[in-house]
Design goal:
The complex is a heterodimer. By secondary structure, chain A is of the alpha+beta class. Chain A contains 20 helices and 28 strands. In chain A, α16 runs parallel beside α20. Chain B folds into two domains: 77 residues, Roll (Ubiquitin-like (UB roll)), CATH 3.10.20.30; 72 residues, Orthogonal Bundle (DNA polymerase, domain 1). The chains are: A alpha+beta, B alpha+beta.
Chain lengths: 733, 158
């Protein structure tokens, strides 16, 4: 347990893969040099390292080891290699990694892809380039300093003599891999930092991009599932007769759903985290869907009747009265002493709902289990973790697991949980054929896992001048770590739950400060959801900073600026935000403005919402945003991701929540789990800060400040403080 | 099961399916055009949008038996031979797609709009495309791209 406490969630997931990762990249390893010397010659060319293959015609193939769910890794990671390898991105083919160990951690999660691969990917490119340059220099019998590489060829300085990479690669592949190749300085970048078009875009406007949903393999059957109406039910008995009568239905079999993540070996553990379902397997998906409606299942749903989200929040409100387990990473001074001497004490409770991910592509997987092997074609966020999970689940060797990663039609965390792949494997094994399992939208919304429902119980103390003396943030609610890894968080400070509000992420210079966590069991499966706990924590955190500012009769921006005085990157972001939003100018009557700032996943993002009255409600007029994500790798994509986070975050703020009554999820489809549509968004203006710092995350950091910035704007306009999400924008004025 | 003769993207296709089979699954699994996507199965999200005689419809809730003789279905694969339809060009220029899953439907909805309204206002775009959900939130870029496609179409005409 201690180890986990000291490690971030994604690091924890990566731990097992990490040892092999460094070997595979191989720049300091003799063993990997030996491997490289074998000159792995495949149809794609000769391997210079796991990420770079070049054929004799000079065609370069780069491997992207972070699945693309829309966030842009398909371009960003190959771009890092291409920059140092001296090839243009439009000269290369890009392939997805297959989950094998040589690629190290392949998880798209925690906005970590560019951040963690910034040096390794550039090193891979630079080392390969040095090998190619050395080979050319040797052939010309000149020093390497008399050669340079450009756009896929090595040139002899001062002449037009050149050798294409294709002419050099075989010999180059036999050289030792440079252990410390020289990496370019920022001033030398020709591709990083430019808004280069994404190579996947054309295939996404002509229908040719292959998503999991589009996979077709010979002999494939289609499966639909009858999941338990209460998520955790077990099948007492079922009748397949009517279903089997549907033309095209081939099998109706009992199957299972596993609620765990990672290679957990014990049977006892697996049994605890298992529930049951009935699968209808047919020659077409339509037949499988028709068959599904006709299966009669007698469910055992004991214990589910008391599960309700309303009841959960009642318990959470009770639990919010407790002290909670304290976080060390957010501890400053003694808040109780500060509160005791405060002139004014303010308390407020904020509530964030359970939410479904609702990616456009419902979860699906095509899986073929044979004797001692399995092949998967699926939209998954982390093929390496899936290799481990499937090997454990099926009791086969990791080398016999092959994952073909497709494009992901959105994921937002959902597709880094592989229950659906294991389901497809279980069905394939029974029917002895490749099976494409597709969940319906209703299952996507009703079966979880969900973003945790959370309460932020806030307390602040002010002196007579309105200075903040103490700031307390009690987190009360569900634990992803408990749900996914079965670690009991009762009485503990969940190490993942404090993100976005620890001292590093929230460096407000409060003289005293305390964060704590109090676990409340949701009796529903929980999962990471875009920006994870930062998505819920910052709502209370940044709204309450506003509340304290108003209580002190100070401007919310001024209060933030003064509390963040010693955090120059935060100050720069706030100053830029004030400038682009004209925060300091007097607003026209009937207009309100509110801001929020948050650091999550190593990047700082801030929004300013401008709102106006609209009948009984509020209209969002415009949102201004600033992000400091370190070195911007592709500014256009960063802007797109911030816009994406605004829209996703707003849906979580002003649309529906997942509600459960007697164990049954009340939402079913986009009619009762509405999401933002065209025409419902504010105008968005995004500024990306220039920087030469190590890149931070981009896919999530724009989300956490959305809800508090909007609610702060509504307070500014109406004096009404919103403390429970979601709310109806049309009725809130 | 019954035999249906469908015209999809200029070609005639003969399929043998149940009469209640949604056009979506006929297009995807019988004919093999995978660009048309399954999103909700209830006509709520627009991922399955195709053009029926030029009009944007939801193929997931259109039974194959409801098509009439002579009906013409256009899927994303039939919009242009080489990604050169003005909407596709504008989409690439503006780098609209993120995950891309909804974009076949979005592009077709925009193409249908521009076919009847060569210079739509923001409000008209919002109305025409409100049936197509994008969870990546590419709405603002789509609106910009529709305007730019409209502009290109007009320049072409004049």
């Amino acid at each position: 347990m201690k180890k986990i406490n000291e490690t971030s969630r994604r690091d924890f997931i990566k731990l097992s893969a990490q040892a092999t990762a460094f070997l595979a990249i191989g720049f300091s390893s003799k063993a990997s040099n030996e491997l490289v010397k074998l000159a792995n010659k495949s149809a794609l060319g000769i391997e210079l390292n796991p990420y770079i293959l070049i054929n004799e015609l000079g065609k370069v193939t780069l491997f992207n080891a972070r699945p693309d769910m829309g966030q842009g890794t398909f371009q960003a990671l190959p771009l890092l290699i291409a920059e140092e390898l001296e090839v243009r991105l439009d000269q290369v083919d890009i392939q997805m990694s297959d989950g094998s160990g040589k690629f190290g951690s392949q998880l798209s999660g925690g906005s970590s892809s560019v951040k963690t691969r910034w040096i390794p990917m550039r090193t891979a490119g630079a080392a390969a380039k040095e090998m190619l340059v050395q080979t050319a220099a040797k052939r010309w019998n000149v020093s390497v300093s008399d050669c340079y590489a450009k756009e896929g060829a090595v040139y002899k300085k001062g002449s037009t003599v050149k050798l294409g990479y294709g002419e050099l690669v075989e010999e180059a592949s036999k050289l030792p891999v440079p252990t410390q190749p020289r990496l370019k300085a920022h001033s030398e970048f020709t591709q990083i930092g430019k808004s280069i078009p994404r190579p996947d875009v054309p295939s996404k406007v002509d229908g040719t991009a292959v998503f999991g949903m589009d996979v077709q393999v010979p002999g494939m059957l289609y499966a639909s599932l009858v999941h338990s109406p209460t998520i955790y039910g077990k099948v007492k008995s079922f009748s397949a007769e009517k279903s089997m009568a549907v033309k095209g239905v081939r099998f109706v079999v009992k199957t299972e759903r596993n609620f765990y993540h990672g290679p957990f070996p014990t049977e006892a553990f697996k049994a605890k985290a298992k529930t049951e379902a009935v699968a209808v397997v047919a020659e077409s998906y339509w037949a499988a869907l028709k068959g599904k409606k006709l299966v009669e299942v007698n469910w055992s749903t004991e214990g589910a009747e008391t599960t309700s989200t309303d009841e959960f929040f009642l318990r959470a409100n009770e639990a919010a009265k407790k002290e909670g387990a304290e976080y060390k990473d957010a501890k400053v001074g003694d808040v109780s002493k500060a509160f005791a001497i405060s002139e004014k004490l303010i308390q407020a409770q904020y509530q964030s709902p359970f939410l479904a991910h609702a990616a456009m592509e419902p979860v699906n997987a095509t899986v073929y289990v044979q004797d001692d092997s399995v092949e998967v074609w699926a939209p998954v966020q982390g093929p390496d973790a899936l290799v481990e999970e499937l090997a454990t689940y099926l009791g086969i060797k990791k080398e016999r697991v092959k994952i073909n990663v497709t494009f992901l039609g959105g994921a937002f965390g959902r597709k880094a949980y592989y229950d659906f792949v294991l389901e497809a494997a279980h069905i394939s094994k029974q029917v002895n054929a490749p099976v494409k399992l597709i969940w319906t939208r209703e299952e996507d919304m009703q079966q979880g896992p969900y973003r945790p429902g959370m309460i932020s119980a806030m307390k602040g103390g002010l002196d007579e001048k309105g200075n903040i003396l103490g700031f307390e943030h009690k987190l009360v609610g569900a634990s992803i770590m408990t749900s996914v890894f079965k670690f009991d968080m009762t009485g503990k400070s969940d190490p993942w739950a404090g993100e976005g509000i620890n001292l590093e992420d929230s460096p407000y210079a409060f003289p005293s400060r305390r964060n704590s966590f109090e676990y409340v069991a949701p009796n529903l499966p929980m999962l990471w959801w875009r920006s994870v706990y930062a998505s819920t924590n910052l709502f209370g955190h940044e709204s309450f900073v506003d509340e304290l500012a108003h209580a002190a009769k100070k401007d919310p921006l001024d209060v933030r600026m003064s509390l963040l005085e010693k955090s120059p990157r935060f100050i720069a972001v706030l100053e830029k935000l004030a400038q682009i939003s004209n925060y300091r100018s007097k607003r026209a009557k009937g207009l309100g403005i509110g801001i929020a700032i948050a650091r999550s996943f190593s990047s700082i993002a801030a929004h300013a919402f401008e709102v106006e009255k609209n009948g009984k409600g509020i209209r969002m007029k415009e949102v201004f945003s600033v992000i400091d994500c370190g070195t911007p790798v592709n500014p256009a994509n960063i802007i797109a991701q911030v816009q994406s986070n605004i829209v996703y975050g707003l849906t979580a703020t002003i649309k529906n929540e997942i509600r459960v009554v007697k164990g049954q999820v009340q939402n079913s489809n986009f009619n009762d789990y509405a999401v933002l549509r065209q025409g419902e968004i504010p105008k968005m203006t995004v500024h990306v800060m220039e920087s030469t710092d190590v890149p931070g995350g981009v896919g999530e950091p724009g989300l956490p400040p959305v809800a508090p910035a909007l609610c702060n704007a509504i307070f500014n306009l109406t004096g009404k403080r919103i403390r429970t999400l979601p709310f109806d924008l049309e009725q809130i004025g | 099961m019954a035999i249906y003769n469908l015209q999809v993207n200029t070609k005639k296709h003969r399929v043998d399916v149940d009469s209640d089979t949604p056009l979506l699954w006929v297009i995807r699994d019988e004919i093999g055009y995978k660009g048309t996507k399954f999103g909700c199965g209830m006509g709520l999200c627009g991922a399955c949008t195709v053009l029926l005689n030029g009009q944007a419809i939801r193929s997931c809730s259109t039974p194959v038996s409801s098509l009439k003789a002579g009906d013409k279905v256009l899927t994303i694969e039939g919009l242009s031979a080489d990604v050169t339809h003005p909407v596709q060009k504008a989409w690439i220029e503006a780098q609209v797609p993120q995950c891309g899953y909804c974009q076949s439907g979005q592009v077709l909805a925009a193409a249908a709009l521009l076919a009847t309204n060569s210079n739509p206002s923001d409000a008209e775009i919002d109305m025409a495309m409100a049936g197509n959900i994008c969870r990546c939130g590419t709405y603002q870029k789509m609106r910009e791209a529709v305007h730019s496609a409209a502009k290109n179409l007009q320049t072409k005409k004049s």
